[in-house]
Amino acid sequence: KRNFQTTSKLKIVYLSRIVNNKGHTDFIQGISKSKVTNQLEVKIIGEGHLKNHLEQMVRSLNLEENIHFTGRLSHNDALHEISKADLIVSINYDGVFGNVVLEASQMGIPLAVLSHSGCLSLSQYNFFELEKDSYLVENIAKTLDKAVKDKVWLNDLSKKSEQFAENYLVNWNQRIDSELLIVKNFFYNYDL
Fold this sequence. Notes:
With 192 residues, this protein is of the alpha/beta class. Helices cover 45% and strands 15% of the residues. It has helices at residues 24-33, 51-60, 75-84, 99-106, 136-149, 151-168, 172-188; strands at 10-15, 40-45, 67-71, 87-90, 111-114, 128-130. β4 (87-90), α4 and β5 (111-114) form a beta-alpha-beta unit. The N and C termini lie far apart (51 Å). The relative contact order is 0.16.
C-alpha cells in the first residue's frame, strides 16, 4: 500500500515510444506551466524519433533538473521504475493504452490517462482522466499541481488504482484456473 505523506519530490514516470501520437510534447508543456515544477522528478522511458527534439525542448524550457530521459529499458528495469513512481502519466492520442497502465494499477500506482474510448471511460474505474481538448496542457499542469499539494487525493487515486486491478485484472493463477474450468466443462459436458 502506498502512503503519499512525504514532502519529497513527486516521482512521475511516462513510459512509451517517443513518437508523435503519444503526447510527450503536451506533457512537457504541462510540466513547464505547473506551479510545482521544482517539486517534480520526471522520468521519460522509451525511444523514438522525437527523443532528440524533446530533449532540446526540455533544455529550452530549463527543465533539465526535473525531466530525465532514460532511453529504452528492459521490461524488468521498466517495472522497477514504475514501482518507484508516485504517478504514471499516459497520453496516447490513438485511443488505446499500453501495458504500463495495467502494470501500474496492479502496483496501486495512481494514473493520469488521456480520456478516450480506448480507455473504456476509465473514470468509471476511478482513474484520473485528462480530457483531450484545447486545455490539455493546462489540465496536465493542474493535475500535477494537485498531485503535489493534495496527498489525500493522491492516496485515493492509489486505492482506486488497486481496486481496478482487483476487480478487472486477473493474475496468472486466476487465468489458468478459469481456462482449466472452461476445458473441464467442455470435456465433461460435451455429448459425443
